[in-house]
Amino acid sequence: MRKLTQIIIVFFLCCVTLFFVYKSGFRYQAEYQEQLRQQNVTSDLCPLRNFVFVKTHKTGSSTMSNILLRYSENNKLNQLMGRYPTGTEYGDLSQHNYPPPPSHEHYNAFLMHADYNYEYLRSKLPINTKFFTFVRDPVSRYISAFNFFKHKNAYDPINFDNAIKLHLEDNSDYLINTHKCKNCHNTVDSVAVDLGFNLKEYVKSHDRAAYIKAFLGKKDEELDLVLLSDQYDLSLVLMARRYCWTFDDISYLRSLESSSKPFVREETKAKVLKFQKIDAAIYEHYNKTFWELVKKETMEPSARMKIG
């Protein structure tokens, strides 16, 4: 009996010891992860190893994601990604369940569609992480989305141009007295929403022009690079030069590209542009900054991009 008691005591002490070892190890791992995240390692900047691609709908983002997924795989980068089969596209990012990175490593990249949350993503990745995205001409993006998501079926399944007219008429009060838009999901002002624009606050604001200006100022601070899907190949070369990536890194095949190009009258396109005030303002702003950056690159040739 005495021997059994001794065995039980030894077993208990071993369990307690293992518990504290595990707990301290877990705390050390968490502290180490935070130290890695805080390190501003120069070698991570060129070539870029830590990045967030802010996906926007119908801007060539699926093609870009495939490029970045391949780059991440080839360079053994750890992605912040929700557990399958749940996605991150809808809902609060902080509420998703993410598998931890390997021991003594940190997350390197986030590439998924998501409700954009800059502060949360910044807290999960190293402080030298770069954020970049794509924008697209608001008229061509609207037409592409309207066709891809089959919104025409709610208005006129036969006549695409007429379906758009009916859609615009159906939402004539949008952004005038209401932020709600019927059959507008991922279609109207979608780039703005994907970048975190608050439509409800915008409608309530007393100075809507100032609200948009403030939003763009905030995005300028958050985003290191904003590319144009209308200039896709040039955008990729610009990105590769900036982040010291190779031609092999940016080679691609297009994804989710529609084979049909529906006919839309010029007068209807003008109405679409007028309807999407916010996306139009975003595109005008970043179209300007994009060409300024191209001009700077051509006047000051960079030797950072590697060939091969």
What does this structure look like?
- With 308 residues, this protein is mainly α.
- The chain contains twelve helices and four strands; from the N terminus they run αβαβαβαααααβαααα.
- Strands 2-1-3-4 form a four-stranded parallel beta sheet.
- Helix 2 (61-74) links the parallel strand 1 (51-54) and strand 2.
- Helix 5 (160-170) packs parallel to helix 11.
- The longest helix has 37 residues, at 2-38.
- It is globular, with a radius of gyration of 24 Å.
- The chain starts with a helix and ends in a 9-residue tail after the last helix.
- Residues 20-44 have low confidence and may be disordered.
What characteristics describe this protein?
globular; mainly alpha; 12 helices; four-stranded parallel beta sheet; 4 strands
Number of helices: 12
Roughly what percent helix? 40-55%
Multimerization state: single chain
**Could you tell me the number of beta strands?**
4
CA distance, first residue to last residue: 75 Å
What spatial order of strands do you see in the largest sheet? 2-1-3-4
pLDDT < 50 stretches: 20-44
What is the H/E string?
A: HEHEHEHHHHHEHHHH
How big a fraction of the residues is strand?
5-15%
Instruction: Average the pLDDT over all residues and give the rounded result.
Output: 85
Structural class: mainly alpha
The biggest beta sheet is recorded as: 4 strands, parallel
